[in-house]
Amino acid sequence: MAVTIAEVGRSTARSLSAGEATGLLLYRNFLAYRRAWYIFATGFLEPLLYLFSIGVGVGALVGDFTFNGQSVPYAEFVAPGMLAASAMNGSVLDSTFNFFFKLKYNKLFDQMLATPLTTLDIARGELSWSLLRGGIYSAGFLLVMLAMGLVSSWWAVLVVPAALLIGAAFGAVCMALTTWMRSWQDFELVTLATLPMFLFSATFFPVSAYPGVVRWVVEATPLYRGVVLCRELTTGAVTWASAVSVVYLVAMVVVGLLLCRRRLDTLLLT
Amino acid sequence: MTLSEPGSMIHAADLRKSFGGFEAVRGIDVDVRPGEAFGFLGPNGAGKSSTMRMVAAVSPVSGGTLRILGMDPATDGPAIRARIGVCPQEDTLDTELTVWENLFVYGRYFGLPKAEVREKVEELLEFVQLTDKAKAMVDDLSGGMKRRLTIARSLVNSPELLLLDEPTTGLDPQARHVVWDRLFRLKQQGVTLVLTTHYMDEAEQLTDRLVVMDKGLIVAEGSPLALIAEHSTREVAELRFPVAAEGGTHEPLAESVADLAERVEVLPDRLLLYTHDGEETMAKVHERGLEPIATLVRRSTLEDVFLRLTGRTLVD
Ligand SMILES: Nc1ncnc2c1ncn2[C@@H]1O[C@H](COP(=O)(O)OP(=O)(O)O)[C@@H](O)[C@H]1O
Ligand SMILES: [Mg+2]
């Protein structure tokens, strides 16, 4: 048996297209996560629990709400907020902790770079994975909203791509930032950034509750852009202003991805 | 500019690598021919891994010329990596996957079709004797098994050139011999092997030709036998003494026997007498009334070559 000499009739190794490379990275992550599906499940449950306790429970005390001039039940107001937040959470988990583990401990990327794969393939593939995860979460969440009668417009179909965009934006930026992390302790900073966003980005109450400057700050946070975008879609209040959110999030994807690739070059191709 | 020898697997001319202000590789010239087993022998910090990483097209060249399979790693990285196999110094196995999945997924990174990779994985598991570990997680393997898995992985794309950075460092003697045996078979199959090591016996056993590296430079080049013939004597008489007291050396002892050998090396715990006939020299040493605590007559090795060229031992 000749183990190495290329044998007649066998294909020769070659570089991969962007699509093939992304597919393979997704496949690799699927194999790895198959053994830890319950971690997958908790990420889905969290926003659902919030929806039940706050949206439905607290909602019973609060009553209806005026959003963009229309009267909306509180649960219907909170649900899209939770959807956006779940897209953020799913993607932040993958692009911080899991990305760090692959980068520093599993030496996964060093391994990949010994093959025809490139740093851009890695950045793109890992981002697609967090996207896929975020997408599954939000599609599931949308079904729950539908079942609970919390969707009042056909625009809501677009909420899944919107959630993907939110996931991609957070994923790309978090991956880039993670390349600067030195130890697990540094991840406290992630919680420090995402928890306040989760609580205050007009998720549970409208942004009009804030006084002038604070309101401006909140409106500039990425999660707020995601929350209003989802809410505009599920309540059917889509306007040109929604495009601002889209552009904002797309910019995060592009900048995050390019930065991440640059950092992987400096860290791994030494 | 130096022209590449035709068909050269690796061609390096005045190759350099710097990290910040520190130059780890300080201008080396290397040509590796097809089918050859080529070695980089040198102590820790010599610049072996830095060189290997440049050759593996994962580390940008800081200066000089480098061609791998006739291609420039700066512009053809993926194409080069598609045709070579790499066994890095530190295992980079995927700890979240099983042994089988490690090989399969890695093979797919080379754009090979599923069915072919599946077949190849079975062959390779057989080759490195890990078939019964196919379903094990990587963390449950011994050090020797991990190394063998890494070697199997480096072969998944049927490479024309195989780079092995310290393939047996950290393995126990038995595990080392298993790895040597596998590498020897690859060599017989005509794979071009390039390996680094700081074990002189590994270099002697596996390589046809090697360069001795020290502090980022090549200090000698040739076949193991030629290097020994050129830089050492046939035999060595070793005289072991108690370790010299703080501040003292065995220098005076060395002077008393200097005329008995072509050359005498003084180490903290022994004298090495380089001579054509070790037994005869040893007899004369005893006639002079010296009383070493132990003696040994042996053939010269690459270790002696290294000592001669650098004044230091390979493994410290
Ligand atoms: N990424 C790096 N950054 C800074 N210095 C490095 C880096 N890699 C290697 N070095 C230094 O370069 C020298 C040569 O290292 P290396 O090539 O690993 O030697 P060897 O493999 O022969 O032990 C060492 O002094 C090492 O500390
Ligand atoms: Mg090394």
TrEMBL record, chain A:
<feature type="transmembrane region" description="Helical">
    <location>
        <begin position="134"/>
        <end position="156"/>
    </location>
</feature>
<keyword id="KW-0472">Membrane</keyword>
<feature type="transmembrane region" description="Helical">
    <location>
        <begin position="36"/>
        <end position="62"/>
    </location>
</feature>
<dbReference type="GO" id="GO:0140359">
    <property type="term" value="F:ABC-type transporter activity"/>
</dbReference>
<feature type="transmembrane region" description="Helical">
    <location>
        <begin position="192"/>
        <end position="218"/>
    </location>
</feature>
<feature type="domain" description="ABC transmembrane type-2">
    <location>
        <begin position="38"/>
        <end position="267"/>
    </location>
</feature>
<dbReference type="Pfam" id="PF01061">
    <property type="entry name" value="ABC2_membrane"/>
</dbReference>
<protein>
    <submittedName>
        <fullName>Unannotated protein</fullName>
    </submittedName>
</protein>
<dbReference type="GO" id="GO:0043190">
    <property type="term" value="C:ATP-binding cassette (ABC) transporter complex"/>
</dbReference>
<feature type="transmembrane region" description="Helical">
    <location>
        <begin position="82"/>
        <end position="101"/>
    </location>
</feature>
<feature type="transmembrane region" description="Helical">
    <location>
        <begin position="238"/>
        <end position="260"/>
    </location>
</feature>
<feature type="transmembrane region" description="Helical">
    <location>
        <begin position="162"/>
        <end position="180"/>
    </location>
</feature>
<dbReference type="InterPro" id="IPR000412">
    <property type="entry name" value="ABC_2_transport"/>
</dbReference>
<dbReference type="InterPro" id="IPR051784">
    <property type="entry name" value="Nod_factor_ABC_transporter"/>
</dbReference>
<keyword id="KW-1133">Transmembrane helix</keyword>
<dbReference type="InterPro" id="IPR013525">
    <property type="entry name" value="ABC2_TM"/>
</dbReference>
<dbReference type="InterPro" id="IPR047817">
    <property type="entry name" value="ABC2_TM_bact-type"/>
</dbReference>
<keyword id="KW-0812">Transmembrane</keyword>
UniProtKB/TrEMBL annotation, chain B:
<comment type="similarity">
    <text>Belongs to the ABC transporter superfamily.</text>
</comment>
<dbReference type="InterPro" id="IPR027417">
    <property type="entry name" value="P-loop_NTPase"/>
</dbReference>
<keyword id="KW-1278">Translocase</keyword>
<dbReference type="InterPro" id="IPR017871">
    <property type="entry name" value="ABC_transporter-like_CS"/>
</dbReference>
<dbReference type="GO" id="GO:0016887">
    <property type="term" value="F:ATP hydrolysis activity"/>
</dbReference>
<dbReference type="GO" id="GO:0005886">
    <property type="term" value="C:plasma membrane"/>
</dbReference>
<keyword id="KW-0547">Nucleotide-binding</keyword>
<dbReference type="InterPro" id="IPR003593">
    <property type="entry name" value="AAA+_ATPase"/>
</dbReference>
<dbReference type="GO" id="GO:0005524">
    <property type="term" value="F:ATP binding"/>
</dbReference>
<keyword id="KW-0067">ATP-binding</keyword>
<dbReference type="Pfam" id="PF00005">
    <property type="entry name" value="ABC_tran"/>
</dbReference>
<protein>
    <submittedName>
        <fullName>Unannotated protein</fullName>
    </submittedName>
</protein>
<keyword id="KW-0472">Membrane</keyword>
<keyword id="KW-1003">Cell membrane</keyword>
<feature type="domain" description="ABC transporter">
    <location>
        <begin position="10"/>
        <end position="240"/>
    </location>
</feature>
<keyword id="KW-0813">Transport</keyword>
<dbReference type="InterPro" id="IPR050763">
    <property type="entry name" value="ABC_transporter_ATP-binding"/>
</dbReference>
<dbReference type="InterPro" id="IPR003439">
    <property type="entry name" value="ABC_transporter-like_ATP-bd"/>
</dbReference>
